[in-house]
Amino acid sequence: MTQPTDIRREHLATALSLAASGVPVLPLRAGKVPFGNCRRCADNVCGGRPNMKTPGPCTCPAPCHGWAAATTDPDVIQSGMWRRAWVQASAVAYHPGGAWLTVVDLDHAEAITWARETLPPTRTVPTTRGEHWLYMGPMQSANAVRPGVDIKSSMQYARWLGPGTGTMAPLPDIVRALTVKQPTTARPVAVTMPAPVGGGGCPHRTPTYLDRGIAMAEQRITEAHEAVHATVYRTFLAVLSTHGRCGCLTETHTARLFTAAQAKGESPRHCADAWTNALTTLGLSHV
User: Fold this and answer.
1) Are 97 and 141 contacting, i.e. CB atoms less than 8 angstroms apart?
2) Contact of 102 with 152, CB cutoff 8 Å
3) CB-based contacts of 150, cutoff 8 Å, min separation 6
4) Which residues pair with residue 140 across a beta bridge?
């Protein structure tokens, strides 16, 4: 029969093995929660607990501060204060973002079904109630991105439940998009375009031509992986330079562009500012 002492030794051995492979680890106590702050770090006086101002580990030798305590240093993992924590530990946790990983935590069968129908296949790890899907690459963590689905990566910890099965895939955009707040009441600014020059027919009113242009603009925004705000502005500028003087753009077209930008994390105000700046650059703002 396996004794508690043997289990705790296994936890320490697992932690050292993970650390040797570059995965930052920390012990979890009963209830799958990190150890609380020691007296030295009470009320986060050390400033090490992750928050908007001081995101990062503190210098405390104890396993305080949740994910920020995670380490790959074997000397720390086996130090006196950590050894006392391992004696009480009920599990091993790791910091996915620190290991350049993202965990899609699926809490129940319905969430697993959604993942299998929606997400690219990757390495999976069984959990008590569901599965962890592991992807290569870090991202922002978020809880309840959809029913039964949490994202655990940067500034978050996940319980180590084994290496899993399957080939780990690169982190896809569809997972990154799960943490983007979808616009609710936000609507694009109303824009009045000038009449066609000379009062003639608009050369761009062919539906196929216009729709193709808007679709290409949406794709350009969606595929942006960096400098998103600049990409949105340049895309708005390109659309307006082609269609802004002939009056063919409608509110439906601008709504499509704004929705694509907001899906990449742009706020409604940033979208409005980018649109206004593009109008000004092209001399259309006075209309």
Assistant:
1) yes
2) yes
3) 104, 105, 107, 141, 142, 143, 144
4) 154
User: pLDDT tens, 150-180?
Assistant: 999 988 899 999 999 999 999 999 999 998 7
With a CB cutoff of 8 Å and minimum separation 6, the contacts of 77 are: 12, 15, 16, 19, 25, 71
Are 82 and 76 in contact by the 8 Å Cβ rule? The answer is yes
pLDDT of 190 over the 90 cut:
no
In terms of phi and psi (left: phi > 0; alpha: psi -120 to 50; beta: otherwise), the region of 242 is: alpha
* Distance of alpha carbon 170 from alpha carbon 101, whole angstroms: 9
pLDDT digits (tens, 9 = 90+) for 21-73: 999 999 998 888 888 777 777 655 665 444 333 345 566 777 877 888 899 99
User: End-to-end alpha-carbon separation of the chain, Å?
Assistant: 82
Token digits for 126?
Answer: 């069984």
- Say if strands 169-170 and 131-136 run parallel, antiparallel, or are unpaired: parallel
What Cα–Cα distance (Å) separates residue 63 from each residue in 72, 91, 153, 205?
12, 14, 19, 65
